[in-house]
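In response to the reviewer comment on reproducibility (Comment 2.3), we provide here a single inverse folding case reported in full, input and output, so that an independent group could reproduce the run without further information from us. The structure tokens appear first.
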């Protein structure tokens, strides 16, 4: 009799485990086999339709792989029927990860997925108690949002070179450690591209606002063209101030 009870108990535990696993599917089934193109760190309230995008960054392949691996770990407890369920209660988006064919928005306890045309395709809910852990780990991956530049503590002896160019009437830039030679075209085109305000915050975060130089280039043609320094002193000085250099 005791043996039968033990077998029955083992069966119950096994079924409970199976039920628990089936009730907590992973969102990995929704993640495409693609790299993450960029991440938006933002706050959005869908009740008011107001969104406040604070930052938008491209990711390195390594950062993309790490975040995709982390997202695939997330299990969800409920999947909403988009034809019947309203989701105006979903707000406070923390991250929007953009792939080539879709976007994944992550909040404290919800994940919504859009297709390439920004049409909502999936909406799932996960345990909010686990968010703190995911949030901390994602923050850790994104903490060095511009890994091409060292921290000031690493003492970049040759300074930092900020290459700036115009793109559609807007100044864009990329940064790298200074060298005693002129950079090759493919090195400049391979730089992580950010806006001037974004680079300012990156330089401030890394303590590099007093050890960089601005180099103006033209990337519109097949070859990278260095703009004449003497002819562009005013523009260089303006960009230096916008990047955080003290007057």
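Designed residues, in position order:
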């Amino acid at each position: 009799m005791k043996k039968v009870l033990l077998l029955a108990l083992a069966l119950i535990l096994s079924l409970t485990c199976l039920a628990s696993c089936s009730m907590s599917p992973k969102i990995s089934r929704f993640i495409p086999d693609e790299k993450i193109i960029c991440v938006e760190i933002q706050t959005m309230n869908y009740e008011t339709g107001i969104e406040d995008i604070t930052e938008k960054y491209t990711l390195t392949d390594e950062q993309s792989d790490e975040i995709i691996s982390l997202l695939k770990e997330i299990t969800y407890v409920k999947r909403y029927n988009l034809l019947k369920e309203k989701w105006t209660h979903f707000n406070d988006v923390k991250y929007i990860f953009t792939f080539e064919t879709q976007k994944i928005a992550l909040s404290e306890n919800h994940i919504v997925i859009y297709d390439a045309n920004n049409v909502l395709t999936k909406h799932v809910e996960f345990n909010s108690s686990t968010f703190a852990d995911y949030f901390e780990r994602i923050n850790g991956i994104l903490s060095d949002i511009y890994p091409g530049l060292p921290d000031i503590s690493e003492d970049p002896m040759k300074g930092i070179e900020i290459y700036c160019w115009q793109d559609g009437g807007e100044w864009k830039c990329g940064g790298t450690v200074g060298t005693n030679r002129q950079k090759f075209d493919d090195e400049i085109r391979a730089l992580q591209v950010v806006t001037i305000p974004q680079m300012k915050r990156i330089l401030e975060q890394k303590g590099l606002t007093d050890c960089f130089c601005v180099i103006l280039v033209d990337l519109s043609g097949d070859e990278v063209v260095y703009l004449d320094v003497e002819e562009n002193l005013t523009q260089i000085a303006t960009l230096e101030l916008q990047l955080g250099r003290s007057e």
